[in-house]
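Lab notebook, bench 4. Still working through the backlog of constructs that have no structural model yet. Next entry is a single chain of 847 residues. Request: give me the C-alpha cells for it.
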Amino acid sequence: MLKLTKKNKDASGGKSRPKTAGKSQGISSPGNALYKILITALGALALVLVVAFTYLLLLREPALSHNQIERAADSYASQQATNLHRMITLLRSRMVAAANTPLAQTAIASQSREELQAVETALLEHFPELISLRILPVGEMGTAAFKGGNQGLRNHIEVNMVGRTSDGEATRPESYQIEGQWLTSLAQLVKNPDIENRNAVILATLANDSINRLLEGLDGSVGNFAVEQAYTSPTGLAKTNIIASTGNGGDEAYTRYAAIPDTTWTIAFTPSEALLQALTPSSMPTLAVFILCMLGAVGAFALVAIRMSRVLENDVNQMISAADRKSELQLATPQLVPAARQLRRATLRAIRAGNAAAESVPEEDTQTLDLESETGSLELDLASDAPDVPDDFPAHIFRAYDIRGDARSELNEELIAQIGLAIGTIAGEMNEQSLLVGCDGRKSSPALKAVLIRALMESGRDVIDIGLVPTPVLYFATHHLECRSGIMVTGSHNPKTDNGLKIVLNRQTIAAGGIEQIRDRVLAGDFSHGSGRMIKEDVVPAYVEEIAHDVAVAVPLKIVLDAGNGATSAIAPELFEELGCEVVPLYCSVDGDFPNHAPDTSDEANLTDLIEAVKEENADFGVAFDGDGDRLAVVTSSGRIVRSDILLMVFAEDVVSRNPGADVVFDVKCSRNLTQLITQHGGRPVLWKTGHAFMKEKMAETGALLGGEFSGHMFFGERWFGFDDGMYAAGRLAEILGTHGSTLDELIDRFPATVNTPEILIPVDDRGKHAIVERIVAGAEFSGGRVNTMDGLRVDFAEGWGLVRASNTTAALTARFEAESEEALENIKNEFREQISVTAPSLDLNF
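Model written out:
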C-alpha cells in the first residue's frame, strides 16, 4: 500500500523546526551547477559528434563504398563484354577470310560434298579453338540445301541458324548443351564473287571452354564472371542460362551486368570477397578521429571546469576577506560583483551596530513520503475476457490445428452441435455464407456430420454435403466449387474411437488462434441464428479428372494400394486405374472398425501386410493411406519402407530441377540430408514446425512449390493447390518412376545413407505434454550441439541430430534420431536420455 502523508507537527504537538547543518545557517548547495552545466554542454557536443560520425560510418562511407564497388563491377563487366565481342567479331572475320580463299571458293562453286569436307578439314587446322567447321551450300531458292537429312547438324538450333543465315538474315551466336557440355555455334554467309547464286553458309562451333579461358584472362580472384544467354521458355517466360563462368563471387547484391553487342548474351560479374574488402575502406581512421574528438572535448570541458572552479573559488575568497574593508576589490567573474557589494554592505552595517545579526529561520511545514509496504498490498487485477471453463468441459480436444477427441466421452453430439454453431457464426462474420461438409468412414462420423450440418444451418449458413470422402477431396472442393470454406468430420490417423474436425475458412486451414476462437465461442454461447439450406454434391469425379489431366505416368506401373479400410478405399483404386496403372487393392472397403490394422501410416507395424503384398505381386511399389487420405506411406518393390523425408528428397529433386531457386518446406523431424539435397539442386530449404496447418501457412508465406512432413503429409504447390494430399503425392511418385525408368530402390539408393529411427512415441498425459517439453527445453544443456527450439527441442551435432517435441494430435511426446553410424546414434540417444532425466526424471523413455 502506497501512502502519501503531510506531517505538520512534532510528537509534542508543537511545530517542528527545520533541520539545519551545524554552522551552515541553513545555506547549502545540493550540487555543483557549474559541473552540471558543463556536463550538459559536453553531452550535447557528444551527441552532435555521435550523430555526425554515425552518419559517416553507417551512411556516408557505406554509400561511397557501395558506389565504388558498383563502378568497379561495372568496369569489369564492361571489359569482359568488350573482350567477348572482340573475340566473336574476330572469329567471324577469320571465317569469312577462310571461306574466300581460292580452295574454299572452288569447293563452294562445285558444291561437291567430298571437296567441301576436304576444305573443312583443311580450314579447321587454322581454327584450333573450334571443335567443328562446316561449309553448307545454299540452294537456288536462297535457303540451305539439306538433301538426305540435316547434313549432320547437331540440333534444331544449328538447322534454324543455318536456314536463317542462308536467307540473308544476320544471326547471332547461340549456345546449347549437348551431353553436359556447352557449345556455341556461329553462322556466316559467304558468296562466290565470280558465280552468281553460288553461296554457302559457314558454320563454326566452339566449346565454351574457350570462352572460359578468355574470361580467365583477368585475375580470377577479383570475382565471378558468368556469361548468361537469354531465351524464352515454352510457357512464354523470359529466362537465362549460364553458358560459361569462371572465378568465385561474393555478395550477389553487387552483381553487375553488361550486354555483349550482336549477341543475346550478357556478362554478369559478381565481385569476390577479396575485392569487396579491398574496395571497402576501413572504418578505423574515422573511429580514431571520433575517439580523438571525444577525448579532446572531454579534456577541454575538464580544463574549463577545473579552471572555472579555481577562478570562482579565488573570487569568493577575495569577497570574504575584503567584506569588512572599503579597499578596492577586482573580481574575475563579473556576475559576482553585485553579491560582493551586498556582502560588504551587510558586513559593515553589522560592524557598526556592534553585534552580529542572527538570522531567524522560519519554521516550515515539511512533507514526508511514508511508504507502507505489506505483503499483498500491491495487487495486479487481471480481467480476462475469456469465459469461465467448466470443470467437465474437454478443453484439451481443441488442439493446435484441429478439434479431436474420444467420440464416446468427449466429442459427443451435443458438443458437436455447439461447435457447429460457433463455426457457422464465425464463418458468417467472415462473409462465408456456404460451407462444405464431408466425413470419413468411422462409425461415429455419419451421426456427427448430421448434427454438424443441422447446427450450421441453425446458425444461418448454407451447407454443401459432399458425403464420405477423403480430406483432400474436401480441400479440392474449396477450389473447384464456388465455396471457399468447409469442415471435415474425421479422426484422421487416430484410433477408431476418436473423431474430430478439420476446418477450412476462406481456403485457409485454421490453426491455434482460430481453434481457440471456436472454443471461446462455445464457452460463451454467443451464436448467430438463421435458417440455412443444404444440398448434396459429388465432387469425386472432378477430383479424379483433375489429377488425371495433371499427372502423366509414361510407363504402366503395378501398384499395391492399402486404403486401410479408410476413406480412400473407393477413390484411390479408381484414380490409379485412370492413370493407367495396374492396381492391386488391399483393404479397399470402408470399415470404421479398421479390422486389419490401425489407420496410422506413420506406425511402421501397420505396413507389414503391404510389404508382403508388394513382394508377392512383384509390384513396382506400394502405397498406404491413413484414415482420411491426407498422409501416405510408401514401400519399394523390395519391401523397404521409404521414410517420408527420403520420399520428400525424391519429390524435391524433381520439382527443384524444373524450378531453380524454389522453396521447399519441411518439418523438424526430417533428415538434415534433405537440406543438403535441396541446396545442391538450387533450391532453398525451409525448416518449420510440424503440423499440416503450420506447413500450409509457411508455404503460402514463402511461395514454396513443395512441402512435406515426416508423418507423411505431402504438399505440392507446383501444378496443385498446396494442400496435403496422399493420393496426389502417390500419383506424382508414379509419374517420376515412369519417366525415369528407374526403380524406387535405385532412386533412393543414390541418397546419402544414415542410421536413423522412426518416429518414437513416448506416452504422456495429453494435458501436460507441452509443460514437460517446456521443462526439458529450459533445463537441458547440450553444449556440444546446435539447439533449435522452434518446435520442441532439436539438437544438431557433428555426426547427427536428435529431437523431442510434444505431439499435436496424440497424448505423447515424439522423438527421432539420426546419425552417420550406430555408435554416433547411440551417443546422441544417451545424451538426450541424460538431459531429459535431469529435467523430467519421472518420464519413462522408450528409446
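Notes after review: The mean pLDDT is 85. The CA atoms of residues 108 and 137 lie 7 Å apart. Flag for follow-up if needed.
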